[in-house]
Amino acid sequence: MIRLGESQVLVIVKKVDFGVYLAVSPEEDRERVLLPARQVPEGSSVGDRLEVFIYRDSEDRLIATTRVPKLQLGRAAELKVVQTGKLGAFLDWGLEKDLFLPFKEQRGKVREGDEVLVSLYIDKSDRLCATMNVYEALKMDSPYQAGDRVRGRVYELSDNFGAFVAVDNLYSGLIAVKELYGDVRLGTDVEARVIRVREDGRLDLGIREKAYLQIDTDAEKILKLLDAYEGALPFNDKAAPEVIRHETGMSKNEFKRAVGRLLKQGKVQIGEKTIRQCKS
Fold first, then answer.
1. Which of 70, 175, 52 is closest to 118 using CA atoms?
2. Nearest-CA neighbor of 271 among 219, 222, 234?
């Protein structure tokens, strides 16, 4: 069977002026696909086997190419947006016909020149299209272990689950809601720490270091925040968790630990409703 969206080895069963026809085997030549003459390797003959990628041309006809595309079914890759329109965007994937990314398959604003992480799917009209929902294309067999540092692209944000991350654009990872800090945005790359590897192979990630390593960084951040507030924060460690997270990007416990460190160092004073920086 000739498989759309994949590379496969096919055999030349017929030569014509405008190219060669390929099939799975000489015995199974009812299903054929054309490889245009300009891509037929010099000296090729009937019976030769060629590795080709199968897609559809500008007239939606099945066609073969010896070019290696930047993306195939079951994988994810970053592709450049070359054009946008009312129905979607077109991506450069290394073939003559650009790859269509429908509007409904986009996550966030897509602009010309952007590099977007996508995977392939076959639509209801049997055409190859791109989607930014890459979850199904990500692998579960990463080489990483708890404590490793990784980098990946945030491809989806969920109020219930957190930030879904494509680690190395290959592996499935998740930054849980409780681990989300700072400015984590859709379509951006993040550096994270592997908290654990689940039984199914997915990676649980955290942006922040372990508490004993993070506390000094958090304390320094509070000092910078105090400078921005001219030496006095309009809240203290008894404030609502939502206020603390909004202002500092920390959980209430992390904020309290960092403030406690600064208090012991004599760098801050805690008032009834404020935290003040001690003058040196």
1. 70
2. 234
Distance CA 166, CA 136 (A): 11
Q: How confident is the model at residue 17 (pLDDT cuts 50, 70, 90)?
A: very high
Cβ burial, residue 260 (10 Å; 0-12/13-18/19+): middle
Q: What is the pLDDT of residues 140-195, one digit of tens each?
A: 999 999 989 899 999 999 989 999 999 999 999 999 988 887 678 888 899 898 99
Question: The whole model's pTM is what?
Answer: 0.71
Longest dimension (CA), the chain: 88
CB 227 within 8 A of CB 216: no
Interatomic CA distance for residues 172 and 124, integer angstroms: 27
The three-point CA angle 63-68-108 to 5° equals 95
Model pLDDT, residue 11: 96
107 to 81, 157, 241: CA distances (angstroms): 14, 9, 30
Residues sharing a CB contact under 8 Å with residue 202, sequence separation 6 or more, in sequence order: 140, 172, 173, 174
Check residue 5 and report its DSSP letter. T
